[in-house]
Each structure stands twice: as C-alpha cells, then as structure tokens.
Amino acid sequence: MSAQSHVDAWLARLAGERHASPHTIDGYRRDLAKLLAWMEVQGVQQFDALEPNRMRGFVAAQHRGGLSPKSLQRLLSSCRSLFRHLSREGLLGHDPLAGVRGPKVHRKLPEVLDVDEAKQLVEAPAEGALSLRDRAMLELFYSSGLRLSELTGLRWIDLDLHAGEVRVLGKGSKTRIVPVGRHAVAALRALGEAEGIVPEQPVFKGRGGAPINPRTVQLRMKQLALLQGMPKRIHPHLLRHTFASHMLESSGDLRAVQELLGHADIATTQIYTHLDFQHLAKVYDAAHPRARRK
Q1: In the chain, which ranges are continuous DSSP H helix?
Q2: Is the terminal CB of the chain with fewer CB neighbours within 10 Å at N or C?
Q3: Is the full-model pTM beyond 0.70?
Q4: Where in the chain is the domain with CATH 1.10.150.130?
Q5: Per-block average pLDDT, block size 10, for the chain (294 residues)?
Q6: 96 CB contacts (<8 Å, ≥6 apart)?
Q7: Burial class of residue 54 (count of CB atoms within 10 Å of its CB; 0-12, 13-18, 19+)
Q8: N-to-C CA span, the chain
C-alpha cells in the first residue's frame, strides 16, 4: 500500500469504527496532507523510511513556511496518531517521531465574564417568540458548561428536569451526565411548556423543527450582548470558560471541573487554575497594604 492509502484507510477506520466527527477527520486529513506533500518532495515513498532527523526537517520546513507553534503541535499530534495506528497494525517497526518536539506554545488565557457580567447576560430581558429559547440556551450554557455542539444536539429525552441533570454526547462520542442549575431548569421548563415536550425532538429548534444551527446560536448571543451594551466579545465558548472558572474559584476541585467539562486530559482543565490565580492576585493587590499601587 502507498502512504496515501495508509492514510485513507486510517481515516476511514476513525470515521467508521471510532465514530470520529467530520471536523476531526478533516483536521487529520489536512495535517497529513502536509506530511504526504513533503514526503513526495523528499522522494520518500513509505512511512517506514521516515526517521527522527527527517521528521525534524519536516517540522522545520513547516515552521519556515509560516505554520504557527500551535498548528505545528497539532500537526505533530496528527502524525503521532497515525504512526501509533500503523505500529499497532504491524506496519511500522519504529517511531519516526521519537524525541521530536515542536516549538513551545504559549497558551493564551481564555477571557471570562465575572459573576455580575454573567448574570447580566443570562438574565437579559428579551422579547418576542424567541425569548424563552434564548433564555434557556444562555442559562444552560452557564449552568452546565456545555460545548456548542453538545447544546445544539440536545434532545428532550436527554434532560431530566426533575433530577436537574442533562446527558450530553461530547468529543470522541463520550457521554457524560452534567448537573443543571435551578435557574436553567426553570428556563427549560418554561420553554417546554410553551413549545411542547416531545422526547425525541431537539430542545432548541431551528427551521422546520431541525436542531438549531450552531451559527444561529453564535449570532444570537452576539446580538443579545450588543443589546446589553456588553463590551466583551460574547460567544458560546466564553460561557463555558466562565462556568469552569467560577466552578474552580468556588470549589478548588480541579478533578470535578475536569469531569464536568468532559476533558480527557486534566492538563486541558489546568488552564483555569491560572485564571483563578489571576483573580486571587487582583484581590491581593486591592487588599494588601504593601501591594497597593499608588
């Protein structure tokens, strides 16, 4: 098999057996296309001809071509995933990326709303037929820290309003149960009473009763924020960041926040500890007699 055939077979397996999302598959395909194009220029026909020094040259070439450190790290991750698969299948006898590291990525801390800003957004007075839907969406985002895809894919059968829980399908087709706060429960009940609850139907509907389009949610949140005169750029993931930051600030339980967010790696969740420290630093600067700035 050619290198391209190995890539195609692996991507088909990810989509078929592991139910990877189209977005994930497209990302892998774009990354591995860079590797295949470089191999062609280098005259390398098969993956077993690759070795660490050559792969360092590949990384360097991509970096010179303008790829950012973050994109390079994602590219290396895609290559590692493919190489692990080939190794498990007995098609690759060594690790071409052994000892190869990408440039260090300086992670930008996510912006969050403070408690008053979050309250202002989710309790924004709204009028018209969409007001109940908008309130329920905002309350649920902030209450449970859902991803945009998790919210748009939600059906009434996934909600247990009596118990205050929601079952969501997250990344990697992993299911988790997340608590729903009382304000979000009340908003969802109001929406259900107005529209009628049919277990298999979407909670948040778009045209023709189909699940609401993610872009519609993004635009609607932006419009509501503008109506409130909020200066920050409001988007669904901002409320997820805000949920995580407020939960960690109040509880200090990083593992619990990891479970609630559905993060596979706790390192992803640890970024919120930096946000929590920023909050503590602000309190310190404002309160400590020897820390106050003139």
Answers
A1: 3-16, 22-42, 52-64, 69-88, 115-122, 131-144, 148-152, 182-195, 214-227, 236-251, 254-261, 266-269, 271-287
A2: C
A3: no
A4: 3-88
A5: 93 86 91 96 94 93 89 93 94 93 71 88 78 93 93 95 91 86 94 92 91 94 88 88 86 82 76 60 57 51
A6: 47, 50, 51, 52, 54, 55, 79, 83
A7: middle
A8: 70
Provide the annotated active-site residues.
147, 171, 237, 240, 263, 272
Q: What is the DSSP string of 67-119?
A: --HHHHHHHHHHHHHHHHHHHHTTS-SS-TTTT--PPPP-PPPPP---HHHHH
Place of tokens 């007075």: 125
Class for the domain spanning 3-88: mainly alpha
Domain 115-284 has CATH 3.30.465.10: no
In the numeric block, the tokens 């908008």 are attached to 134
Q: Where in the chain is the domain with CATH 1.10.443.10?
A: 115-284
β-pair partners for 134: none
How many angstroms separate the CA atoms of 95 and 49, rounded? Answer: 11
